[in-house]
Design a protein that fits this description.
With 213 residues, this protein is of the alpha/beta class. The chain is 39% helix and 15% strand. The longest helix has 13 residues. GO terms for molecular function: methyltransferase activity.
Length: 213
């Protein structure tokens, strides 16, 4: 495992894994620090086709007893994405965890570009030239304080466009929401991470109710 506990903790400059979620979230909200952290991870691996934190989170962060958290195997994530397909560029997933299924969908979009290649399906490999992050929107929801920072990381390092909402997908009560924005046509660019203001307009737009503190 490339990103074991010691490796991740060293990159994040923490001495214990329990500090990872808060540390990672703070890094994601700071542009300079965010991009520096991304580069440190990419120095170890540039394979973005899967969730690097799968085993790290499962071993150190998952709340299996209190919230019944567990990971979807990569093979199941691949099967689910093949069954559902994607031709619109819009993706929605509740209880997204750290983003394993989301990453599988994003990777398939990169490889096949179903939006950009609608009229060029007979030209193999054309998606390499046509994939434009601005044509895709990924909306994901997750309740766990521990999982959300990893979910944001996984979206932003891959240059996605979308929104990560920390909420109960059934009651629609939301604690936070973050816009993940890559407003370029560069599939290799990092995304910005922008905290969503807690206004009535965004409640309506995201179909949520801000949790009262």
């Amino acid at each position: 495992m490339q990103f074991d506990v010691n490796t991740v903790n060293k990159i994040l400059n923490i001495d214990d894994a329990y500090k990872a979620p808060d540390t990672l979230l703070a890094l994601m909200l700071n542009k300079t620090q965010r991009e520096n952290i991304f580069k440190k991870f990419l120095n170890i691996s540039t394979d973005l086709s899967f969730d690097w934190f799968h085993e790290y989170f499962e071993d150190e962060q998952a709340e299996r007893k209190s919230k019944k958290q567990d990971f979807t195997p990569d093979s199941i994530a691949t099967l689910l994405n093949k069954l559902t397909g994607n031709t619109t560029g819009y993706y929605y997933e509740p209880t997204a965890g750290t983003g394993g299924i989301l990453i599988t969908r994003w990777w398939q979009d990169c490889l096949n570009d179903p939006v950009g290649t609608k009229n060029n399906t007979n030209i193999p490999g054309i998606s390499f030239f046509t994939y434009d992050p601005r044509k895709y929107w990924y909306q994901v929801e997750e309740l766990s304080d521990r999982a959300v920072p990893f979910l944001i990381f996984n979206m932003a390092i891959r240059g996605m466009n979308g929104v990560a909402i920390q909420c109960d997908s059934l009651s629609r009560e939301a604690k936070e929401a973050y816009f993940i924005r890559n407003d370029t046509d560069n599939a290799l660019a990092f995304s910005e991470v922008i905290e969503v203001p807690k206004t009535k307009d965004f409640e309506k737009e995201l179909n949520i109710n801000w949790k009262e503190v």
